[in-house]
Amino acid sequence: MGTVQANGIEIAYELHGDSGGLPLVLVGELGQQLVGWHPDLIRAMVRRGFQVLVYDNRDVGFSTHFDQLGQPDLVAVMSGNADAAPYTLDDMAADAVGLMDALGWRSAHIFGISMGGMIAQIVALSFPDRVRSLTSVSATTGSHGVGHAARDATAVVLRPMVASREAYADGAERAHNIIGSAEFSPDREWIRRQAGLAWERRYDPHGTARHLTAILAAGDLTPDLARLEIPALIVHGANDPLIPVASGRLTAAAIPSAELLEIDGMGHDIPRQVWDRLLDKLDDVAHRGEVAAAARRASASISSFGHS
């Protein structure tokens, strides 16, 4: 693991795979630390030719925590006062690009899950020349017109603070039972192990709450997504109780170049049983992204030659 200064904060990260691989940035969900990405999934991505970058978002793990901001005012943000959010998803998108800058990555394929999917969408919109392809998993555009969470799923997001590693692992397992892929056998050992690792690195419920206010304060990206020109893959579980599949369908419909992969039985997670199918599609969208990037470089070269 390494740390760098990026966008004015310190970000902890890990790189997996050969430096000659296709650069792939994984952007985590609400409160997720870099240890929340299954190492077998990362290895599978590396075997397919990617160099995989995982990192701690601000306010989790070993990245900068905004402790001085304290517990955010969720009620104010939920009531429509976006200014009450300590920071925005745009700030978190700038963190990702700042990390790429620090590592010398001119552009990359961006893959985000849930909140990370929204951040990935914002990176693609705000920094289009930095993104070769977009993969958005189990995410929303921020539209309030579709995709209302089930009540018990909402309770998972708002679960109370705990005082021990064991209690935190218990909570992670209970959360998976509610929002995970019920039709696939869960890897309970992994769920508990990664929760324990996250606890040991740093448990910060106030940081997670600040993530939540950033999500709640985000506007509707749906109209803006229509101007994306990069290849995009939208992945959503047909059985997602937290961000229902209607949100994935809306995201795919909003992006002209998007392909929708809707997976029966999948909830708000990425179970091992769907990895091969997901990675096949990731290969496809990355290939399209590489072809498009090469075409842009050729066009720029021709244009430059014509003006010389």
TrEMBL record:
Q: Which UniProt keywords apply?
A: Hydrolase
What InterPro entries does this protein map onto?
A: AB_hydrolase, AB_hydrolase_1, AB_hydrolase_fold
All copies of the AB hydrolase-1 domain together span 31-270
Question: What is a GO molecular function of this protein?
Answer: triacylglycerol lipase activity
Please name the Pfam families in this protein's record: Abhydrolase_1 (PF00561)
Is Nuclease among this UniProt entry's keywords? no
Query: Which biological processes are named by the entry's GO terms?
Result: glycerolipid catabolic process
Is Protease given among the entry's keywords?
Answer: no
Family annotation (SUPFAM superfamilies): alpha/beta-Hydrolases (SSF53474)
Protein name (record): Alpha/beta hydrolase fold protein
